[in-house]
Amino acid sequence: MKIKKIDNILSISKVKSIKTIDFNQKFIFLAKTDEEISIVHDKDYLLEDVIEESNYWRGFRVEEQLDFNLIGIIKKISTILANNNIPIFVVSTFNTDYVLVKEEHFSKTLDILEKNNYVIE
Length: 121
Prior knowledge:
- This protein is α+β, with helices and mostly antiparallel strands.
- The protein has helices at 73-82, 106-115, and strands spanning 2-15, 28-32, 37-42, 50-62, 89-92, 97-102, 119-120.
- The chain has one domain: VC0802-like (2-Layer Sandwich).
- The longest helix has 10 residues, at 73-82.
- The N and C termini lie close together (11 Å).
């Protein structure tokens, strides 16, 4: 399976409101529930109304468009990384899964996945 590196260094933020979010940013992932609003964004994009933030994440996306009937794509990746003591943060869009790891684990993550037959782009 192919995975593509995301060049950006990312932050994960919990915010009070989305009123001032610039959705024209290159990479914005928003999740809103009845309990919180979380945003994954470029580290250099400074948000207002931040409650909590975790910085210096790097990531990759599964390059193939995934059908909703496919089972185990993230499980396989997360198991490989968990077996190597690498914590992850996963977000998904309609078509694509994204896996984020702390920047200090990124090179090791790519090496491990490559050794497990993933093609890194």
